[in-house]
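Sequence in, structure out.
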Amino acid sequence: MQERVSRSPSASDPPVATARIDDAARLMTWLSPAFPVGGFSYSHGLEWVVETRVVRDAASLADWIRDLLAHGAPKTDLIFLAEAWRAVQAADAQRLAAVTELAAAFVPSAERRLETIAQGNAFIVAARAVWPSPPIEALQGHEVAYPVAVGVAAAAHGIDLTLTARCFAQAFVANVVSAGVRLVPLGQTDGLRVVAGLESPVAETVALALASGLDDIGGAAIAADIGSMLHETQYTRLFRS
């Protein structure tokens, strides 16, 4: 039997981009369930959809999230994130103020507004306390949508836009799947299969959003919007949206 021999890194190995690794580690912290924005308490309207049995298993959950990525809020949120990132990079305070105001207003229901503003403001509070910077400080006291808060923080600390957007979108998917695991309910392995199966749609949505601008914001995920509205009066609720 041939013995496998482990190999130590050598000078011929491709160089490791230390800054890129540091960026990824920072984003893992900011977008992890442990970061105090309360993302675990929002279902993005999924709770109503599960109640009506539109989503009832892993396959229908995957289809639902795939439609959200293609037609719903994730693409628009990524455009807002990118616009905020670029405004900070350009030191354009007027541009940042405009996207901050627009993103805070661009929500279809009261609970969706709560979802994005509460998480955005909580993100700013935590970032100011631990990773302070002038652009983050400037958002204090404003209503800040979650993608804008993340975009500003990433730009303020020199974190790559594409990496930030991809991690943000992947975290959105993971959060909705986590809600689905609890609501349907699903096993953890089925939830992981859904997340894995959505990697390509996430990448496609990110690429499309980063090639778009504010003139391209909008969506057609009508059922998700209606679900978030009907959830406001749903009799039994585990989630805030």
